[in-house]
Design goal:
about 0% strand
């Protein structure tokens, strides 16, 4: 499927909007409900995604990738870990409503997706066990900060 095709882009957009609308109800939904909300049929959905679970994971990852791309000190995880963790925690806190919407039922999914995104960023050129450990440690620290101090007032 051509991901640059306007029909593909429009379908992705309406699926995302429908997903967020249904997530706001804070209860599980079915593929049928998602397709009804998006006003598409299941065949169209399956041209884009293999399952509702895969869609859920992918859409959360796309949204978090967009959010994390706006983190000011994203490239400083290894040069200034404290600043990186502070920037990450601040960005999540600033977008708490969105984060809660995506992960209200599974905080650990948010952590897993965050790990995947950061490991992709930092390990894309060369793999290093040391880098992987450091990034997991920084993310665990951010998660700990957020769960122990959800709002800085």
């Amino acid at each position: 499927m051509n991901t640059n095709d306007l029909r593909f882009i429009k379908t992705e957009k309406i699926l995302r909007e429908a997903y967020l609308t249904l997530r706001k109800k804070k209860k599980p939904f079915t593929l049928t409900q998602l397709c009804q909300e998006a006003m598409i049929n299941k065949t169209t959905f399956y041209k884009h995604y293999e399952s509702l679970e895969k869609f859920d994971y992918d859409i959360c990852k796309k949204i978090m990738r967009e959010l994390y791309s706006k983190i000011e000190h994203i490239n400083e995880a290894f040069t200034n870990t404290e600043l990186f963790v502070e920037s990450l925690s601040s960005k999540i806190s600033e977008n708490k409503e969105l984060y809660d919407l995506l992960f209200y039922d599974d905080f650990n999914k948010g952590i897993r997706i965050s790990e995947e995104i950061y490991l992709e960023i930092y390990l894309k050129d060369t793999y290093s066990l040391e880098k992987e450990i450091k990034i997991r440690f920084a993310l665990a620290g951010s998660a700990q900060l957020l769960t122990n101090n959800p709002s800085k007032e």
